[in-house]
Design goal:
single chain; mainly alpha; 2 strands; flat
Amino acid sequence: MEVRHIPYLLLLPAIAYLLFFIGYPLIQALYLAFTKNGAFSLETVRRATSDPTFWQALKYTISLAIAIVPIQLILALILALAVNRAFKGKDFTIYALIIPLTISDVAAGLIWYTMLSDYGFMNKLLLNLGLISQPIHFFGYEYRTMEFLAIVIAEVWRATAIVFVIILAGLQMISREYLEAAEVFGAGYWIRLRKIVIPMLKPSIQSALIIRTLFAMQVFGIVWILAGRDIPVLAGEGFYQLMEIKDYGVASIYALTIALLSIILGALYVKFLKAEYLEVRT
């Protein structure tokens, strides 16, 4: 075996994984979505898009991503900057911050459902403090705005940790020499943050946004625990069409919509969050 063939052999397991677990399901989804009786057809697309629930699911999925991802990014950046320094109890603080990452979305949904129910911990606390005179209703079709808020709270609590870990790793890769040199020349904390830290964090921010947005497009467990179909989302409606209605074509349309949104947003992140290097500017 020639040495030049070794890299290709090493890539074979990854290629086989992508073909089997991503390529084949994608082809199957396209087939189910755009064929009828073995011939090309847009009937399934028309059937899916003529249902108002499809557009509601699209709206709520995008709305949740717009509400959740920026909050998580800002919160993770603040937390990462706070712990990226030497202090007593630093390791314990990091471990405490990433605990929610170990909890499944279903478990997180159940925790927050218990916390936010009419006589759950949150309402009891506010009642005992005299801040409210009656429980705040978070759940029920007529309280969909509050259900939306509950989902945002639960998702921010559960998944901010993954963004935090990525950004903290990026901060620790920034050479102290840059910051020390800037400090010598009189740059204050905010100037160093804006001119050095944030530009050099762009690769980490890009990775965190791509990963978190992909998960946001697939949000399902927490939504179904806290709101059911009161707040339809693409992944939830795709599951419903697949398991309850047994309409595999429409379920494929939902899955392909999630994939298309993820690809578009990922491309935008790659385009507009390019890494900046302080050594060379063009």
